[in-house]
């Protein structure tokens, strides 16, 4: 996943370089959310304290760009866990920023579980997974009203077999964008 | 005797408007040692020369066998076929070691009207200990046969029979290129007469019977959100009783019929609530950052057993609906969930998980003694028969969801397989009222 984000970022850098309008959009998004920078300063000689620019477009149409990092909309989890790994935290911060930059866009977060364990407990687990995703998205300044949560527990598997691989694919939260 | 396939009975439905694929097939997967031999003689047919729509004696024999307590003699092996009390050769049965003989007759009055009579003969007592006559229609004949099984079962074991009751369950069919189909269905305890209560392309789950057996509460995702409905079986009329933001799940009727326990996450986290069905007043029973769900009522309608992840992994707890401290009741293992309290309130059936394997276990509340009853890989959703003798549950066989049943002592096992798709979340109805 890291690799994918990296290549997307590279593509974005290229786009930004060629398209001045894109740069402007990026800047305005940064201006709105105000937390686009991470301090890169290191004390010691010769270190520059640069301003890191997040080269992901949060332009409203970015959601339709299959090459955008925003095209990745499934978060996977460990068994009986709602912990979001660091990779996905980065991904979700992009989604959060996108939503913060586009207040007319909303997202439906669907939490799911694998078939192991009991059904209603899995509904609760799926709910916690979706809620964990929601918290990270709201952290980026998206409004609560933009984000809805539903848990299907183990009732809507994407993989129908009964093995580790199917379980891994089914333990997930999906971001489903609703554009009017 | 381990997992020995004792008998497979294919059941065909006779009067159903339902498609044939909805029929459950029963397989007895583990016979009980020490089951009582009983001879159920084929009922003599009288009256019109048209065959009755159901073989009452066969239904009774299969019922008694399904209880795990009886071992009916195969028809071909019957040493005698008496038709009346006078015909019974007591000495013959005594020598064969058969304590009980059931004889009866069915009189065909019209094609839709029958008179059924039966007698239970106790060989050692030397006479009839039970005898009844019933009027039946083509629609009620199977039910009457199950009722006869109940009477025989109670006479011999002293425990009320639960054959003439219903089960509810969820089926799911997924076919390539088609929308999935989820159904809430009700059938006789032997899988006959399936009736569809709800069909949806979105998940349906967690059916719970009202204590009088006239209504079912369930969760439906038909509006792309979780909602709890209560449906009246006779009228098909239904009411939406809970549709808060987030989870509306695990509805369970209190034994006194007054409350519905349920799980809501309207405040962000799954907690247990009790809804007073008359006043519509909602009371929070738990308030914890962990998962609290899957409530099950104690028989007094004052206490609940529930699943909580408050210590990290799911374990069972006990709570009063009046509030107070939550008492942990399971300590062994990392996954104990989905409690179902027995009708007498003495034992709790639940799902005990270890690694990737989930089995049905029973916990004796007073002694704390735990017994693992099943040996599947993904056994869940235990439900007691109203007489507490059998636990119905959901299992996986050859990658499909099937229903299975085990006697509460673990000695007798059977399986109910749907010919297509998955079947899950069985819930045994209360006794008929």
**What does the main sheet of chain B amount to?**
6 strands, antiparallel
Alpha carbon gyration radius of chain A: 18 Å
**Which percent range fits the helix content of chain B?**
under 10%
CATH class of the domain at 56-178 in chain A: Alpha Beta
Tell me the number of structural domains of chain B: 2
The third-level CATH topology of the largest domain in chain B is: Neuraminidase
Strand order of the largest sheet of chain B: 1-2-31-30-29-28
**Spatial order of the strands in the main sheet of chain A?**
1-4-2-3
Describe this structure in words.
The complex is a heterodimer of chains A (180) and B (433). Chain A has a domain at 56-178: 60s Ribosomal Protein L30, Chain: A, CATH 3.30.1330.60. Chain A has helices at residues 2-18, 20-33, 86-101, 119-139, 164-170, and strands at 74-76, 106-112, 147-153, 172-178. In chain A, helix 1 packs across helix 2 (20-33). Helices cover 42% and strands 13% of the residues of chain A. Chain A is of the alpha+beta class and 180 residues long. In chain A, strands 1-4-2-3 form a four-stranded mixed beta sheet. Chain B is mostly beta strands and 433 residues long. Chain B folds into two domains: 33-157, Rossmann fold, CATH 3.40.50.10070; 166-428, Neuraminidase, CATH 2.120.10. Chain B contains three helices and 32 strands. Chain B has a six-stranded antiparallel beta sheet with strand order 1-2-31-30-29-28, with no helix packed on it. The longest helix of chain B has 17 residues, at 141-157. At the A-B interface, helix 4 and strand 3 of A face strand 20 and strand 24 of B.
Structure, briefly:
The complex is a heterodimer of chains A (180) and B (433). Chain A has 180 residues and is α+β, with helices and mostly antiparallel strands.
Descriptors:
heterodimer; A: about 180 residues; alpha+beta; four-stranded mixed β-sheet; 4 strands; disordered N terminus; B: about 425 residues; mainly beta; Rossmann fold; Neuraminidase; six-stranded antiparallel β-sheet; 32 strands; globular
């Amino acid at each position: 996943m890291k690799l994918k984000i990296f290549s997307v970022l590279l593509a974005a850098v290229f786009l930004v370089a060629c398209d001045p309008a894109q740069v402007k959009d990026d800047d305005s998004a940064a201006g709105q959310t105000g937390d686009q920078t991470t301090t890169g300063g290191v004390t010691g000689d010769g270190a520059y304290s640069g301003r890191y620019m997040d080269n992901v477009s949060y332009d409203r149409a970015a959601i339709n760009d299959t090459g955008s990092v925003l095209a990745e909309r499934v978060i996977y989890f460990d068994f009986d866990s709602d912990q979001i790994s660091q990779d996905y935290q980065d991904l979700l911060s992009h989604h959060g920023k996108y939503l913060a930059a586009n207040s007319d866009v909303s997202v439906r977060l669907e939490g799911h579980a694998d078939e192991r364990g009991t059904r209603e407990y899995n509904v609760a687990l799926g709910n916690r997974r979706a809620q964990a995703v929601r918290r990270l998205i709201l952290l980026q300044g998206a409004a609560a009203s933009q984000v809805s949560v539903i848990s299907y527990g183990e009732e809507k598997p994407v993989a129908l077999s009964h093995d580790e691989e199917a379980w891994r694919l089914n333990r997930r939260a999906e971001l489903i964008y609703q554009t009017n | 005797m381990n997992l020995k396939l004792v008998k497979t009975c294919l059941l065909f439905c006779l009067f159903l408007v339902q498609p044939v694929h909805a029929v459950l097939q029963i397989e007895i997967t583990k016979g009980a040692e020490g089951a009582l031999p009983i001879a159920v003689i084929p009922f003599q047919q009288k009256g019109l020369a048209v065959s009755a729509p159901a073989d009452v004696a066969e239904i009774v024999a299969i019922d008694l066998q399904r209880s795990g307590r009886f071992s009916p003699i195969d028809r071909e092996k019957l040493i005698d076929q008496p038709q009346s009390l006078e015909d019974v050769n007591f000495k013959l049965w005594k020598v064969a070691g058969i304590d009980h003989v059931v004889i009866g007759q069915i009189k065909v009055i019209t094609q839709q009207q029958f008179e059924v009579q039966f007698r239970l003969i106790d060989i050692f007592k030397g006479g009839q200990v039970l005898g009844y006559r019933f009027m039946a229609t083509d629609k009620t004949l199977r039910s009457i046969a199950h009722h006869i099984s109940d009477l025989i079962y109670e006479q011999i074991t002293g425990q009320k029979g639960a054959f003439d009751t219903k089960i509810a369950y969820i089926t799911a069919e997924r076919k390539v290129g088609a929308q999935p189909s989820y159904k809430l269905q009700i059938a006789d305890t032997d899988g006959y007469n399936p009736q569809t209560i709800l069909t949806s392309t979105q998940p349906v789950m967690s059916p719970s019977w009202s204590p009088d057996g006239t209504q079912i509460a369930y969760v439906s995702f038909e509006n792309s959100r979780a909602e709890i409905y209560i449906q009246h079986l006779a009228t098909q009329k239904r009411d939406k009783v809970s549709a808060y933001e987030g989870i509306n799940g695990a509805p369970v009727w209190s034994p006194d019929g007054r409350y519905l326990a349920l799980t809501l996450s309207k405040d962000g986290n799954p907690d247990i609530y009790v809804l007073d069905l008359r006043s519509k007043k909602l009371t929070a029973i738990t308030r914890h950052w962990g998962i609290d769900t899957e409530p099950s009522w104690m028989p007094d309608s004052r206490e609940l057993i529930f699943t909580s992840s408050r210590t990290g992994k799911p374990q069972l707890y006990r709570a009063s609906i009046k509030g107070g401290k939550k008492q942990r009741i399971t300590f062994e293992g990392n996954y104990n969930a989905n409690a179902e309290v027995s009708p007498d309130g003495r034992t709790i059936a639940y799902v005990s998980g270890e690694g990737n394997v989930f089995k049905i276990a029973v916990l004796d509340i007073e002694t704390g003694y735990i017994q693992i009853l099943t040996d599947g890989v993904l056994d869940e959703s235990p439900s007691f028969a109203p007489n507490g003798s059998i636990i119905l549950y959901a299992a996986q066989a050859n990658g499909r969801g099937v229903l299975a049943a085990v006697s509460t002592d673990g000695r007798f096992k059977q399986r109910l397989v749907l010919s297509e798709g998955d079947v899950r979340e069985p819930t045994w109805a209360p006794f008929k009222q």
